[in-house]
Write a structure and sequence with these properties.
By secondary structure, the chain is mostly helical. The chain contains 22 helices and 6 strands.
């Protein structure tokens, strides 16, 4: 199968940059950096160990620093910010979009971010303070205050003349936002209508009123779901009185979706936040060690359950061979349900009135899967050990564990959410503990009752 061209070129670029740094070919490296996108430079920096990363940053053209920082991920960006002097940080800050600058300022020490804010020009500072006044993870924090709006009572000809007086428009401008004389949101005027419509047409008669704005307090994941459902490129952001404050564009939503996906991957691995691949050894060890310790406690708990059945295991060695099957099948079934429920919670698809239906549905799925696979493993166990008792108990235990697994997959994330814990971070650990204990307890318990 041919290798993906973009992946291949990215690796070749990284290898070339490392080679230039090793051999001191600064001129060639500078020429390379000037001809690639800031996002690609950000990726290069994230792909290097700390000391090499610092060496590359010294070569980066100053005019690109702000854009590059806005594309970097949090922890890697922090390593760069720590090495920048005050003047360099201020120049980078002044070149950033407001929403990107807000994100960077939050990662700086308070005294440093305050000094940067003081030295920003008044308009830039006011816009940053406005964004910072909204809670993190909301539409208000995500929005860009740079918008193009028109009044409802003008003609398309007037709109066109007004547009031609501008050297540029806000990025991803697919439509102008229509407001009344007081600045309250009324609708959207798509660019295609402006370009193809009759110049004498009044905006009010052709504007789209079906695309509703979002409030500043709306959760960013709800906004992302709105973009997905309606195939939006941009959406207006308003306050509680429908006054236009800004807009959110598709590039912001792509970042939200990517960050959410990354967080899910890291949480499933027991990491509370994204980790820089080349972060120092001791911080990485601490982050990962905490969840290893938690997992160790659950393993000892499962081992204690097995230890309660030492007598039956000594008499029937086949049980020791077969018992991982019960726990493993339960773990997989539970993980499937857990993943679906967490996703449904993220999309706001689960409410009190449909939980009962979900529980019944998952129990039926678990029972049917348990029945089918119990027959399969029972037959295999009988052919392997020529013992119908072991085969029957294995099948029954597997069915019990699959029922417990799917029930846990539904209830664990709901309970964790209710008590204020993140289901994506701790749900898998708890589920594994439940399926291991129920699996071992049912299999070994039934075996001790009926086989000895």
């Amino acid at each position: 199968m041919p290798e993906n061209t973009s992946e291949q070129s990215s690796r070749e670029l990284l290898e070339g940059v490392i080679a230039d740094l090793d051999t001191g070919r600064t001129d060639h490296l500078l020429e390379t950096l000037e001809n690639i996108h800031p996002a690609d430079i950000a990726n290069l920096l994230e792909s290097l160990p700390p000391e090499v990363r610092s060496a590359l940053w010294e070569v980066v053209p100053a005019v690109q620093e702000g854009d590059i920082l806005s594309y970097m991920r949090d922890e890697a960006r922090t390593t760069i910010i720590k090495k920048m002097d005050h003047g360099e940080l201020l120049a980078a800050a002044e070149s950033m979009d407001v929403e990107d600058l807000v994100e960077v300022l939050e990662e700086m020490p308070d005294d440093l971010s305050e000094s940067i804010m003081i030295e920003l020009d008044q308009d830039h500072r006011h816009r940053v303070e406005n964004i910072l006044s909204y809670d993190d993870g909301t539409a208000g924090r995500l929005m860009n205050t740079d918008v193009a709006s028109v009044r409802k009572d003008v003609t398309l000809a007037v709109v066109l003349r007004w547009l031609r007086r501008h050297h540029s428009l806000p990025k991803h401008t697919d439509a102008l936002i229509v407001t009344d004389e007081n600045g309250q949101y009324l609708g959207m005027l798509p660019m295609e209508i402006i370009v193809t419509g009759d110049p004498s047409t009044v905006v009010e008669t052709v504007m789209q009123v079906g695309t509703m704005p979002v409030r500043t307090v709306t959760d960013e994941m709800e906004v992302a779901a709105l973009f997905e459902r309606r195939d939006l490129i941009s959406v207006a952001v308003v306050d509680e009185n429908q006054y236009l404050l800004g807009r959110i564009t598709i590039d912001d939503i792509v970042d939200v979706i990517r960050e959410d996906a990354d967080q899910t991957v890291f949480k499933n691995a027991g990491l509370e936040k994204e980790e820089d691949l080349f972060s120092p050894i001791f911080p990485s060890t601490k982050r990962r060690g905490i969840w290893l310790g938690i997992n160790l406690v659950t393993v000892f708990l499962a081992a204690w359950v097995i230890g309660r059945f030492e007598e039956v295991l000594e008499k029937i060695v086949a049980l020791a061979i077969l018992m991982p099957i019960v726990a493993s099948m339960g773990g997989i079934a539970g993980s499937q349900t857990l993943t679906l429920i967490i996703r449904g919670m993220a999309l706001n698809q689960i409410v009190k009135s449909n939980v009962r239906w979900l529980v019944i549905k998952e129990l039926m799925v678990g029972f049917l899967n348990g029945l089918v696979w119990a027959i399969v493993v029972g037959v295999v166990a009988f052919l392997w050990f020529n013992n119908s008792g072991i085969a029957a108990i294995l099948g029954v235990a597997m069915t019990i564990n699959l029922l417990a697994a799917v029930l846990s997959g539904v209830t664990i994330p709901l309970i964790l959410q209710k008590i204020g814990l993140d289901p994506a971070l701790s749900g898998a650990v708890i589920l594994t503990t439940v399926t291991d204990i129920v699996g071992f307890l049912s299999f070994l318990g039934l075996s001790s009752l009926f086989l000895i």
